[in-house]
Structures are given as C-alpha cells and as structure tokens.
Design brief:
The protein has 88 residues and is mainly beta. It has no helices and 9 strands.
Length: 88
C-alpha cells in the first residue's frame, strides 16, 4: 500500500464506512442527536477529490454525501442516499 501523503490534503479528516454500516433510505429531515430538533438533509456538491488509492485527483459525483447543519456544526448522516447507522 502506498502511504505517500499529498501536501495539499495532509491533515484532512478521513472516514471509512462499510456496507454493513449503511441503513435504509434517508428522509428529507433527520432528528439531531445534539439539540433534538429536526434538520433538513443536504447533499454534497461534486468536484475533484484526492484519492490515496490512485494517487491522483478523481471526480466525485454530486449528492454522494448527505449531511445536516446544526448551529456551527456540519454532521455526516448518509452516503449515496442511505442512512449511516451510528452506534452511540
């Protein structure tokens, strides 16, 4: 495995989520674990992202990641329209 770091992305957070950690389809809103209110689910924009697997830039489709905003926070809740099953 090539562990070469890209100076443009060094220090960028990384998360790995397996198929078994994805649930059913996401709705248009989710209940916030932080404040208890419901927040609208938003989709990510597309664009270029660095891939350590290919050691190059790849195109990422719009809407691949779903998140919601609460206060100043941004919380990841879905991938490709499927809920991430968090265990608290």
């Amino acid at each position: 495995m090539d562990m070469t770091m890209n100076p443009d992305t060094d220090g960028v957070p990384f998360v790995a989520i397996g198929e078994e950690e994805l649930g059913g389809p996401l709705g248009k809103t989710v209940r916030c674990e932080r404040c208890g209110k419901r927040h609208a689910v938003e989709n990510s924009n597309g664009g270029k992202r660095w891939s350590y697997a290919t050691s190059g830039w790849i195109d990422v489709q719009a809407g691949l990641l779903q998140f919601y905003k609460c206060g100043e926070g941004l919380f990841l809740v879905g991938i490709n329209g499927r809920e991430i099953k968090y265990e608290l």
